[in-house]
User: Which sequence fits this backbone?
């Protein structure tokens, strides 16, 4: 993702236009009076004017890159491409940028958006025993303005600050001064980062959480990729866990949060967006690191409500989001046919009830669409087991007067209740 404002767009779109397919996040939830509610979060509208304003603000603020999403590299030019890649860290849900250099040439990435600033930061997670970190700053025309290669840089949170009279670029590691890289009187518009070979052996680096911008929020918080979600299986706990796709359980009881800050401490919280309930809080005393979240303690066994959660650094604007859903891997699901809908658009609902869940002698069944307040907008009674089934409707100002996200729901209601 890009800037916090640009990340804000991503979060708004995720909130108003969540993913939708049979490989995404069906939400199953126990309903009242013995009913079973199966929900899929989906957007009906999103606010185009608001998004346009936010998008413009993103380029006026600054940029953050966590490399959790594949498109995080869209704003970067890659030099010596075979040696530069986005890779999973020691955890399958956390990604780094990897640079490997085996020739006397710059190997790395260059930010391609023209943005004059005096502040750059990133996390150096690990390196080999004799690497050279290569820094490149470019003028408004894209020519190299200033360059510096640093041998055996320490790992941790690296900050590069242009200041002084005449201006120099100073390097700080975990808040402590490390080196005066040299004079840089020209205005830097572009920034490059990677490594360079100065010996006869190859070198490699792993970096993460890049910040570009003097007035940027310097804290960074990053959870799993945005299309992943935490799921609790209502019938078989062995299927609960962190999912990257409908049939891909990445972890059974864990997820990871990457963080960085500029003052050596932060409190990382996970909060339910709708209710404000905080289900996790941890104060860290480091400039950067990775937290392991126990999903049973945080979600499955805590009574945490289903829905969207905000992962954030308290007292800052740094945040990410994760969805917590119920699932029934055994084949009962419901989902919309599109990610977003506009006025007068047709809406298609597809759903299925597994044979083991179809008990018409004991339950009545219906599908419905609910708004953000879980008030019913439209509903249909199901009299025959769908294999699969579908319902169609249309967006109208009468039924859908408000922009926002809506739920597709399936209810099995106990006849005796």
Assistant:
């Amino acid at each position: 993702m890009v800037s916090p404002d640009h990340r804000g767009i991503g979060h708004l779109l995720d909130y108003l236009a969540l993913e939708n397919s049979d490989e995404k996040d069906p939400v199953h939830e126990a309903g009242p009076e013995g009913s079973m509610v199966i929900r899929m979060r989906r957007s009906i509208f999103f606010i185009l004017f608001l998004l346009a304003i936010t998008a413009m603000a993103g380029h006026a603020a600054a940029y953050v890159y966590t490399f959790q999403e594949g498109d995080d590299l869209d704003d970067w030019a890659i030099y010596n491409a075979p040696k530069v890649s986005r890779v999973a860290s020691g955890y399958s849900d956390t990604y780094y940028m990897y640079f490997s250099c085996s020739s006397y040439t710059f190997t790395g990435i260059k930010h391609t958006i023209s943005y004059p600033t005096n502040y750059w930061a990133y996390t150096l997670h690990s390196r080999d025993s004799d690497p050279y970190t290569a820094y490149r700053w470019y003028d408004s025309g894209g020519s190299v303005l200033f360059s510096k290669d640093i041998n055996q840089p320490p790992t941790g949170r690296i900050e590069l600050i242009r200041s002084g009279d005449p201006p120099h670029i100073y390097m700080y590691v975990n808040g402590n001064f490390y080196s005066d890289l040299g004079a840089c009187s020209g205005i830097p518009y572009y920034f490059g980062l990677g490594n360079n070979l100065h010996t006869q052996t190859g070198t490699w680096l792993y970096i993460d959480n890049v910040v570009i911008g003097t007035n940027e929020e310097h804290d960074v918080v990053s959870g799993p990729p945005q299309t992943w979600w935490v799921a609790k299986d209502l019938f078989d706990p062995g299927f609960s866990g962190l999912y990257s796709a409908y049939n891909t359980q990445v972890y059974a009881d864990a997820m990871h949060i990457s963080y960085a800050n500029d003052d050596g401490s932060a409190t990382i919280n996970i909060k339910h967006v709708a209710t404000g309930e905080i289900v996790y809080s941890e104060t860290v005393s480091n400039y950067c690191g990775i937290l392991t979240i126990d999903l049973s303690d945080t979600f499955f066994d805590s009574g945490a409500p289903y829905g969207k959660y905000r992962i954030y650094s308290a007292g800052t604007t740094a945040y990410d989001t994760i969805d917590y859903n119920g699932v029934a891997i055994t084949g009962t699901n419901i989902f919309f046919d599109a990610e977003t809908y506009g006025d007068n658009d047709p809406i298609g609902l597809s759903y299925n009830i597994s044979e083991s869940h179809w008990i018409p002698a004991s339950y009545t069944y219906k599908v419905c669409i609910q708004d953000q307040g879980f008030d019913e907008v439209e509903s249909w009674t199901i009299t025959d087991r769908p294999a699969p089934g579908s319902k169609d409707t249309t967006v109208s100002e009468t039924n859908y007067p408000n922009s926002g996200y809506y739920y597709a729901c399936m209810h099995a209601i106990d006849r005796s209740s």
Q: What stands out?
A: The radius of gyration is 24 Å.
